[in-house]
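We now fix the convention by which a protein and its fold are recorded. Think of the row as the fold of the chain written in a discrete alphabet. Here is one such record, which you should read through line by line.
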Amino acid sequence: MPGTKFYPLILATLFLALLLGGCSQWFETPPTSSSEPTPPATTQPETAPESPPADTTVDSAAEARDALLQYLREYNPESAPPEDAAWQEDEATEPAAEGTATYNYSYGQWLVTVSYPLAAQETAAYEIELSNAESGWYWQGTVAKDGEIEETVSARQITQEMSRQVAEDFVRSSPTFSFDGIEPSLTLSETLIGKCPFCWLFVFDFDCSHPGYGDRSGLSLAQVITHHQASIVIEQLGIRSATIDDEWDMLTQTYLGGGPSGIWTGVWECTFSVYGYGGFDIVVTLSQDGDQVTGSYDWENGITEGEVTGNVLRGMWSEGPSYAPPKDAGEIEFTISQDGNSFTGLWKYADSEDWSGPWDGVKAD
């Protein structure tokens, strides 16, 4: 029959199909095509450490140290001390804070400091700092009693040059320098190493085109080249303190203490009003000694006294005939301008919760 010649071919085809079907488990099946493309594989971000088992407990400063070291070896091994480190323990004679116990563990250039409160030793977390003075590695955080670790400062390498750059950038961006600083004049004049880990004091000299500090927009300024010296303390790449000429706080943008020596001293031509009515002119004479200011004014033989904080004078006024509250005494609050030639202020009676009106002044001498 004509079909018989195809039997061998059919049998061979069936055999081949069975063979391929049975071996399919050894090959990866290619994805089938569809109208939507297969999304690309994504790299999952490094996850935070899982919480320790429920029976994990940390009962000593040494165990807190070991929990941290295990954490660093798993998640940031380059920042971790060697596993065979032989730590030397030393209980600090001056703890980190009153009412705490502090232990220092040292190995070569590595130092681990562990502190915990004595009053809540059974429940409070251990505060830990790890540092290496040679390589620059630093870590800060806490280890809880159940072994859970929380980072305050993640592991990072800190160098003096990095810290210097942070300080210089801070000076450049400060209102005083950015207002009228002369760029070529900014130079590093001194560097001192602090007592805390990765702490430095950087001293910069620079010139400005006008006197004064901060943003002096809108002020009448003399065209006088004014030299300044900024002292910036860097701690773990953060700004710990920053001053100019030991007079100006660069962080709060206010004068230190009582401001420049005797800035409030002088004769002031003032205007005050009562509950929005009138504008009474008076002359106020003030004298400053450190952060204390006393004075008098030509209205009912009035007197003032107060204390300066930054660029703000807060104190009391009193006048005749009784010089006593509630109607012959009260409070004042004056804020001096950055050039020291004017102030804006408020006053009120002693028995008043709200301010009674403005009290502004301009320096007459």
Observations:
- The chain has three domains: 61-157, 160-254, 266-363.
- Confidence is low (pLDDT under 50) at residues 1-48.
